[in-house]
Amino acid sequence: MKRLLLGLMLIAALVLAVLGGRTISAQDKQDKYALKIPGGLAFSEIRGYEDWQVVAPSLTDAQNVIRVILANPVMIKAYREGVPGNGKPFPDGSKIAKLEWRPKKLTDPPFSASTPDTVPGDMTVVEFIVKDSKRFPDTHGWGYAMFDYNAAAGTFAPATSASKPPVNNDAKCGAACHTLAASKDYIFTAYPTR
Amino acid sequence: MKRVLLCAMVIVALAFAVLGGRTISAQDKQDKYSLKIPGGLAFSEFRGYESWQIVSISQDGPLMAAIVANPVMIKAYQDGAPGNGKPFPDGAKMAKVHWIPTKLQTFPAATVPGVQHDVDLMEKDSKRFADSGGWGYAVFEYDAASGSFRPGNTTDTPPQANDAKCGAACHTIVKKDDYVFTQYAAR
Lengths: 194, 187
Prior knowledge:
The complex is a heterodimer.
Chain A: H1 2-28, E1 53-60, E2 65-71, H2 73-80, E3 95-106, E4 117-131, E5 142-150, E6 155-158, H3 175-178
Chain B: H1 2-28, E1 53-60, E2 63-69, H2 71-78, E3 93-103, E4 111-124, E5 135-143, E6 148-151, H3 168-171
Antiparallel strand pairs in B: 1-2, 2-3, 3-4, 4-5, 5-6
């Protein structure tokens, strides 16, 4: 009987050890959607952006960055109906995310050092903009946010005033820059044919 | 009474004219999904690719590309294919949209898609495409001036012959990745 009890206790201890290990490993995997810009947007406002449709790719050699711009179904529908070229603004509920990576040059055949294929390497940042004309009346209806990605750690962090571009404790980080695209409802990226 | 009849006839005639005009304008807009590579894939096998999820993007020589895949293939990528050693399942389809790059008007430091150049397609069916690694390939070229597609042919780069093998030789380089160059970009 004593031996049986000892056996049971051993099993219970093992089960606890295994469960404990799993808990720790689950904590290691960051919940990015728990992050928030102080005084600004929460990452969870674009939950599921990983599955959004593509608007367009973009790259800037001078900044050593390659990016893709994705949008939620509300915004994709508006693009397809001709917004912003048709003079109508994007509706409230529109959300657009820009993922940036360091470019990686593929030089293996059929590519070469002189004719590389440039593709995404390490991710550096996720930026997003959401339309809510009541919530963001001072920035033409758009709220902005940016989360920096640390590829080595595999974790995100809210961008700060040390980030590029700097992010303060608000939802206005892109507002000044996007004024260049005021004629397109402050959105730089056009929806190309496909 | 005669006047009413005349009026009615004019209205009917106008209605026909308007309807006729609409029919012609509808014909002007090409149905790209009726196109087919002779001896190869039909464009309609990829119907709806405009709404597929993104796999990755690339700048490949003079062209800029977005690579999208159907739900079957996206799920396989997310499950770890092809790095996990498993091939993509039958029914996997992907499309690569190529554009001629242009400078973004409002922010010229950025290079963005200009006019479309073509769309490259591939789909997995291990029985149907048994002699090309299970994958069938097709290219449809886009003419921006007319806003219409045409099946690729042997004058295009890469050449499209009357079969479903236009990418097979090139893609054999990545046989270890189940013949697919593009990796699923972290996001």
